[in-house]
Structure formats: structure tokens, C-alpha cells
Amino acid sequence: ELNGGCVAIGCARVMSNSLTAMVNNTENDFFEGVEKLLEVWFTRKDGKINNCDLRKLTRDQLESLMVVAKCEIISSSSTEHIDGYVLSESSMFISARRFILKTCGNTTPLTCLPMLLTFVSITTGFDTVQDLYYSRKNFKRPELQLTPHRTFADEAQMLDDMFNSGKAYCMGSVNRADCWYLYTYSYNPAKLPLALRCSNIMPPNNNTNNSVTKANNVMKTGNAGFILGARNMMNQPHENDQTLEVLMSNLDREKMSCFYKANCTNAAEATKLAGIDELIPGTVIDDVLFTPCGYSMNGLLRNIPGGYMTIHITPEPDFSYVSFETNIPQSSYKKLIGKVIECFGPKQFIITFFNSCSSGVQLGAEDGCRVPKYKDYNVNDLQICQLPNYDLTYALYNRTPS
């Protein structure tokens, strides 16, 4: 399964002279490859969601959102269950209840959130934010970001101003070079204790002290009368879901050569040479190769409802960065992650893995560990977090010194 990576290496060796010239021309033009990832799930406070669909959002509305977020739609692809958009800075995915916006560079995705809530309220039939997740790795040059994205504290404050019970986390070491930030909002009107959140055991119903009624009385109203909260968990159990991210830094220069226009004439050629098309076979790929360098792709899987993968590549050696993300279930996450790191050759990578508490997925099951083991890498940090609807695994890998 690693043949694609070998092909990319061979291509790079032939083109190493042109790669050197391209590196000399671009090494002073910094670009922040680290993405800001916003994911929002929607529902209705009355639970009647059969006629609701985020894909009712119009193209004009989506383009208005992108103007506020400071990026543009380049291309799109669709299956029966999900629409994918390649952006000038990363990607957007929209399915019936979930909106995902992932943007790199100096984009400002949080600033378009109020507009998104307004558009959803007036167009799609939803009136409630069920769950929200905002996450990102630490920036290489945070001082170049625009408000509110220069610090995670500012980002969390903006979200706190909109959501009255959100929580902010930092995974990894705050006094070292690498960490990963997460803000979550998840409304739980039944007030189910976290220790029981994977159990069928429910607290007794006390009509004189109804926690659902109390919670509904303190809901916060957002834009256009949009309700933040009010999910009827009895009628709308959270779907089985899992999302894997592999965030890679200090990539192999030779393997990055395919992502320069001087070396590959188009995105399809780069996709093939790098072995990206072999990572999850069967995906319908929509890819873009930027000038003078850089690459983005979305992959949709028709036989997995809502299944997607996405890759974004900043190849310049002084600040090289690659992100891989998918929600497509895997029989072996160890094998998939191994293929990804073989494709790109990072010196360091972070894994984040969300899985719904009912899915039963174990990321490192094959090795009898919390996370997979890889021959040339050490796990330098590992944290496990239980959220109301998900388990979260964070791991930092560094290449073993030779």
C-alpha cells in the first residue's frame, strides 16, 4: 500500500534541480499552513428535522460566508449525502446536519459564524446548534493572524460571547513548540452525568425538578432568533461518527517536490505521483495545484454516506505543513496513518481522533495501545479526553533520531 510514496520519491529525485530553484524563490514568502477547523451540527428544538437540510444554503449565501472568512470557492463536488468545496485556503463540507469549514493562511472563519447561524435559520429549517467544535494546532507565526485568531484566548472569548456553556482546552505541552487547541459546545438538556454518557442508564425523571425544563428556560438566543441549545437527546441520539486528523510538520523535501507547478503540470499528476489516490481507494477526488506551489484536495466516497477525506499541503521547506482528515471508517487506522506518513515523510506529526462514544472504535487496538506504534517514531505526548458525545485522543509523534 506504500507504492504511491515510492513513486513520489522517484519523481523528486529526477526533479531535484528544479525543486532547489523553486525553494530559493519562495523561501522568504511565509504562508501559515496550519488550519482553523470549525464544525457545527444543527437540529431543531422540537426534534422535527425530516425536512431540514443545510444543503439548502444557496451558492450566494456560501460565497457571502467566504467573503467574511477571507477565502473563495474554487471548485465543488457532491454525492447524495455531502457537498464538498475546495477553497482558495483549504475546504468546506456540507451535509444534512453538519457544516465544516477548514481554512489556512490569514483567514477568519470564526467571523462568519454569526452570518452562518442567520442563513441556517432562514433557509434550512434548523433553529438549534446541537454541537460545535473549533480546533487548531498552534500557529508558526501567530502575529500574522487577523483578529480574533492571533491567540486562542481571543478565539475562545468570541465563542464564549455566543455560547453560554462552551469549554476551551489545550492538548499537548503549553511550554513547548507544539500543542493543539479545542473549543467545544454541546447542549445536554437531560444533564446526563459525564460518567454515564455512554450508558443506557438514565437519571430518574422528577417532574418537580425537571432539568430539561430548567435548561430550556436559560437558553441563549443568537442571530435571527437562533436557539443555541435545546437538543432533545431522547429523540435525537448522536450519530456514530469518527474523525481522524494527521497534522504533519517538517516534511521530506523530495516528497514535497510534486507540489510545485515547476515539477507537475496539474493537480491530477501530483495526486498520482504522491500516491494520494491510493490512500482511501474509491474516493472521487477534486484537487487543485496552486501557483507557484501548494496543493488541496477533497475526496468523497459514494458508498459511505457523508464520507470524505481532505488533504492540504504547504510544501516550502522553511514552513512545510500537511494536513490529512477523514471521517471514513477504517478497519485499520494504523495502516491508514502509516500510508499517510509514508506519502509525506514528516519529522513530526500530531494525531487527533474523535469517535462517538457508541462507535466502539479503538485507534491503537492492533498494537494493544491507546495509539498505533510506528517503527521510526516515538510518541512524545498522549492525552485522552472524554467529551459529552465523543472520546478524543491526542498524540504527538517525533521521528526517532538516526
UniProtKB/TrEMBL annotation:
<feature type="binding site">
    <location>
        <position position="31"/>
    </location>
    <ligand>
        <name>substrate</name>
    </ligand>
</feature>
<dbReference type="GO" id="GO:0005829">
    <property type="term" value="C:cytosol"/>
</dbReference>
<feature type="binding site">
    <location>
        <position position="89"/>
    </location>
    <ligand>
        <name>substrate</name>
    </ligand>
</feature>
<dbReference type="InterPro" id="IPR016067">
    <property type="entry name" value="S-AdoMet_deCO2ase_core"/>
</dbReference>
<dbReference type="Pfam" id="PF01536">
    <property type="entry name" value="SAM_decarbox"/>
</dbReference>
<feature type="active site" description="Proton acceptor; for processing activity">
    <location>
        <position position="312"/>
    </location>
</feature>
<keyword id="KW-0620">Polyamine biosynthesis</keyword>
<feature type="modified residue" description="Pyruvic acid (Ser); by autocatalysis">
    <location>
        <position position="90"/>
    </location>
</feature>
<feature type="site" description="Cleavage (non-hydrolytic); by autolysis">
    <location>
        <begin position="89"/>
        <end position="90"/>
    </location>
</feature>
<comment type="pathway">
    <text>Amine and polyamine biosynthesis; S-adenosylmethioninamine biosynthesis; S-adenosylmethioninamine from S-adenosyl-L-methionine: step 1/1.</text>
</comment>
<keyword id="KW-0068">Autocatalytic cleavage</keyword>
<dbReference type="InterPro" id="IPR001985">
    <property type="entry name" value="S-AdoMet_decarboxylase_euk"/>
</dbReference>
<feature type="active site" description="Proton acceptor; for processing activity">
    <location>
        <position position="296"/>
    </location>
</feature>
<dbReference type="InterPro" id="IPR048283">
    <property type="entry name" value="AdoMetDC-like"/>
</dbReference>
<feature type="active site" description="Schiff-base intermediate with substrate; via pyruvic acid">
    <location>
        <position position="90"/>
    </location>
</feature>
<comment type="similarity">
    <text>Belongs to the eukaryotic AdoMetDC family.</text>
</comment>
<protein>
    <submittedName>
        <fullName>S-adenosylmethionine decarboxylase proenzyme-like</fullName>
    </submittedName>
</protein>
<keyword id="KW-0745">Spermidine biosynthesis</keyword>
<dbReference type="GO" id="GO:0006597">
    <property type="term" value="P:spermine biosynthetic process"/>
</dbReference>
<feature type="binding site">
    <location>
        <position position="290"/>
    </location>
    <ligand>
        <name>substrate</name>
    </ligand>
</feature>
<dbReference type="GO" id="GO:0008295">
    <property type="term" value="P:spermidine biosynthetic process"/>
</dbReference>
<feature type="binding site">
    <location>
        <position position="316"/>
    </location>
    <ligand>
        <name>substrate</name>
    </ligand>
</feature>
<feature type="active site" description="Proton donor; for catalytic activity">
    <location>
        <position position="104"/>
    </location>
</feature>
<dbReference type="GO" id="GO:0004014">
    <property type="term" value="F:adenosylmethionine decarboxylase activity"/>
</dbReference>
